[in-house]
Every structure is written in structure tokens, then in C-alpha cells.
Amino acid sequence: MRSFALAGPFFALSTVTYAQSQSIQMNTNTRDQINQGGLDIPKTGTLYGISGPAGKTIGDPYLDTTWQVGNVKFYGKILNTSDSLGGVPVRLDLMNHDVEIQAGANDIRSAKAPSVRYVVVNNKMGTTNQFINVREYRGEADALSGFFEQVSLGKMTLLEYPSIYVKRANFNAAMNTGSKDDELIKKFDWYVAHDGRAAKFSANKKAILELMADKKDQIDVFLKTEKPDLKSKSGLTKVFSYYNKL
């Protein structure tokens, strides 16, 4: 019995030691075969390793994640009494084209874009931004969903269309390159509305002078003297505000 008792642990230890020795020897052999060209892996084959963590979605779907106090105007009445909500925390979901309304600390309601005519929200600059349903315009707006921001109102109304597109994961397991994550990327496009019809707009000097041809001389002088940055929202707003006052 004593011999059996001693042999048990020894056998277990020997087994582990042998397994470790065998494993090391196998790894060494594999390495040597690869170095000597003796391990032929077909070019069409794949040598798999550990897959690693699954991909995730990077980014958020909101125009601004911060809740801002705003007023919401609906196309129809809500609660059978009014078509508006005033002074409520809101934010825009660009992915689903929803207006989210914070009714309480743990109570968030979503209004689908087709039910909302416009939203006016406070901003960090102490002013407001107005977002109007794209349905209020025709033309190229017919192919859109969601809201335009009305940046400058007038004869030529400057609109900004915020949206989101998904940059899909492009991970290549065989090459171990690319990303496993989907990424939400915000995109902003300019539109100009005239007589109720909206058209996409490229913000450059030539396009502006063609668009405002009836006041071309005044606009040309304004661009040369004021030198607004046409690639910025503030610069483009100055040009349209000036034109709409002429």
C-alpha cells in the first residue's frame, strides 16, 4: 500500500512532466519545419489563431448627446389638447430619425420624424437652432428623411442636413488587418431652398455667385472684402444672411 501511495503522486507528476516535455518538443519541431520549408501550408488555406473579442459599434447616433431644452411642434394633436410641447429636454437621433423627449429621470419617449413638424432647441451659445421636417420642402428633399436645420432664412434659405452612415467592420482574419468594429460617422450636407424646393449645394465661390446671380456684383464685393470662410458654418451663414438682406 505504501508503494502504491508513493507511486500515485509520482505517476501524476511524471505525466505532467512528460506532457510539458512533449508539448515543448512539438512546438520546437513545428518551428524547425517551418524554418526548413518542410511544413507546406497551401496558399488557399488558413492557419487559425485565437479570434479575440467580438466587434462592437463605436460612436453614438445623436446630433448632440446632451439634452437641451426645446419646443416640439407636431403635425397632429397630442393628448387631445395641443399639438406642441414646450420647455422639454430633447435630442435628435439621426440614425432612427427620432426626436427623443426626456419626460422624467428614467422616462424617455421617442417621436418618429413623420409626426414632428419642427423642433427648436437651445444651444451652448445661448441661442436656438430650428430643425424642420424635410417634408416641408420638395425637390431633392423628397428622397430624405429626418430634419433640416434652418441656418439662414430668406429668399435663399440655407439648410444643413445632418445624417449618419455606418462604416462597416472590415477585419480580415487571415491577414489580421482592419477593424472588427462598426463605426457611426456623422455627415453634414448643405442644401438651399428657394420657392419651397430644396437642392443640394456645394459651398464654393463659383456656386455661390451662380446661385445669387441677381446680386452677383454685391456678393462678389462682399466675398472679397469680408473674406468669409466658405467651408465653415459661420462663414456661409454670413454670406446668406447678407444676400437675404439685399
TrEMBL record:
Signal peptide: 1-19
Keywords: Signal
Protein name (Swiss-Prot/TrEMBL): DUF4369 domain-containing protein
